[in-house]
Amino acid sequence: MYSADLTPPWKKQQPAPEVTAEPGLVVEEPGTGFCGAVIRCEAGTVTLEDRFGKHRVFPLEPRGFLLEGRVVTLVRPATGPVRPARTASGSVAVPGARARVARAGRIYVEGRHDAELVEKVWGDDLRIEGVVVEYLEGVDDLPSIVSSFAPGPDARLGVLVDHLVPGTKEWRIAESVTSEHALVVGHPYIDVWEAVKPSSLGIESWPRVPHGQDWKTGVCRALGWPSENTGAVWQAILKRVGSYKDLEPELLGRVEELIDFVTGSAGA
């Protein structure tokens, strides 16, 4: 016997749009509130990774996820399992993500070259987090800069210092300004150039420059690079940096530490 559906049209549940579970697509599972990027999609399931690296597996059910607040049905890509798209820093990329309004917190680095390298590798992450990077042109004025900045719980300050070695002037300055809301970290390299892996530049190693000689000029002369324009040499070096894989781990760890500190993500 025929049974008519007497449910009014406006009360019927409308089908949700289908969205392909492409790598990096950020969705929320409403039942748990878990929000993350797609890193794997297999028959019947999708794996999400949140910004802290935690993984959760969910079934591919109709109307099972929220995309920008809209109910959607995730479907498996036609090509099969997917791999996550990554930023230059190695983080899961967030397609179409808008830059966050800048935080009150900041990250300071010593010079323009440091700032350009951080932007090249971590720029996407910094924009999503709303973190601005500025440069100091040396650390001698760091105490007055920190004092004027007045770090606090909602305005943390992170500082990256070149060649931060115990007992040096830079070390003493860093120690004097470090506090609960101001973190100064450093890498062991004389200049941020050294944080680029020699193999990425086609050289065996960074040459040693005699004490008292300008380091960049000495390096250029030893390697046969034009020493009269170190700025142009740096731009050539920067072009060879494609991702975090081209940098030494001593720099990678310190920058990630500062981002976590300024955003309050440390230990999350």
Automatic annotation (TrEMBL):
Domain DUF3097: 18-77, 106-263
Protein's UniProt name: DUF3097 domain-containing protein
Organism: Streptomyces yokosukanensis
